[in-house]
Amino acid sequence: MRLDEALDVLKEKGYKYTNKRAMILEYFNDEGKYRTAKDLLNHLEPHFDGISFDTIYRNLHLFSELGILESTELAGEKHYQMRCTNHHHHHFICKNCGITKEIHCCPMDTIGTELDNYMIESHKFEIYGLCPQCQEQA
């Protein structure tokens, strides 16, 4: 999702456009990979004196509910990134730096025959490991 689309979703759903919300969305837009609430807090603290984890988590939850951000869990902690485009794909996610790579093949293409008579409502497929840069550093 592009930044302007994310801001439009906020407006369409009747949520206020604030400097904090704009900066949060800009952060995820610029990062282009999965980041934690702590990463976001560290980014915002110099700009917003006394910003709390409550504020961070409230906004992360809101943006997730609105479909602006998507999340995954790495090392027992939730990580967020801007929602990808609307075409169907899956992800490789680096467990070290959070960068993602799109995977265009879908395991559902072969699994579907094993699930005859089951109603599939959705699915999510992610592969975790180390990207080439993080492998070099290890």
From TrEMBL:
State where Fe cation binds: 88, 123
UniProt superkingdom: Bacteria
In Swiss-Prot or TrEMBL terms, this protein is called: Fur family zinc uptake regulator
Q: Which residues cross the membrane?
A: none
Residues at which Zn(2+) binds: 94, 97, 131, 134
Q: Which residues form a coiled coil?
A: none
Keyword Ribonucleoprotein in record: no
Q: Which CDD domains match?
A: Fur_like
**What is the protein's species of origin?**
Streptohalobacillus salinus
Signal peptide location in the record?
none
